[in-house]
Amino acid sequence: MTYYYWSPTGQQQYPTGQYPTGQFQQQVPPTTSGGTMQTGGVRNGTAALRGEESYIENILRLNRGKPGTFHFTVPEARGGNNTVSVRGVVEAAGRDHAIIRELQSNHRFLFPMIYFDYAEFDEELAYFNQAPR
């Protein structure tokens, strides 16, 4: 087996059992580019090369304002049922939370993402470009 270490100067290859010392703790500080935060460090895949990551919170942000049904499993929810389904739109989404506005009542929910199960949207979703570069 061969291990790879990515450094700012390029790829370095190490055979099984031979590891560079002290190099795995290296961190690249965050930088800004065009008003968006780019994080440093080791990343893989073509999504990293394009500066996009298909995490749920990013997909929810891309689809703000689109109506859908959002399903969450939470401890001790209303009426003793652990499942909460909200018919609404995403107003905001962060790494650890989503703000959903219920369409019928305009009531807003702040849900931790750890309780998010899935979402069903009424229309086509915006998503990251999947074409290879």
Describe the protein in words.
It is a single chain. The protein is mainly beta and 133 residues long. The protein folds into 2 domains: 2-42, no CATH class; 56-121, SH3 type barrels (Roll). Helix content is 9%, strand content 39%. The strands form 3 sheets. Strands 8-7-6-5-9 form a 5-stranded antiparallel β-sheet. It starts with a strand and ends in a 12-residue tail after the last strand.
In short:
With 133 residues, the chain is mainly β. 9% of the residues lie in helices and 39% in strands. The protein has two domains: 2-42, no CATH class; 56-121, SH3 type barrels (Roll).
Give the arrangement of secondary structure elements.
Layout: E1 2-7, E2 10-15, E3 31-33, E4 36-38, H1 45-49, H2 56-62, E5 68-73, E6 83-93, E7 97-102, E8 108-112, E9 116-121
Antiparallel strand pairs: 1-2, 3-4, 5-6, 5-9, 6-7, 7-8
Sheet having the most strands: 5 strands, antiparallel
Order of helices and strands: EEEEHHEEEEE
CATH architecture of the largest domain: Roll
What share of residues is helical?
A: under 10%
CATH topology of the largest domain: SH3 type barrels
Helix/strand-derived class? mainly beta
Spans of 5+ residues with little confidence (pLDDT < 50)? 1-8, 22-29, 31-49
Total of DSSP H or I helical runs spanning 4+ residues: 2
**CATH classification class of the largest domain:** Mainly Beta
> What is the rounded distance between the termini?
29 Å
Number of strands: 9
Q: Give the neighbour order of strands across the main sheet.
A: 8-7-6-5-9
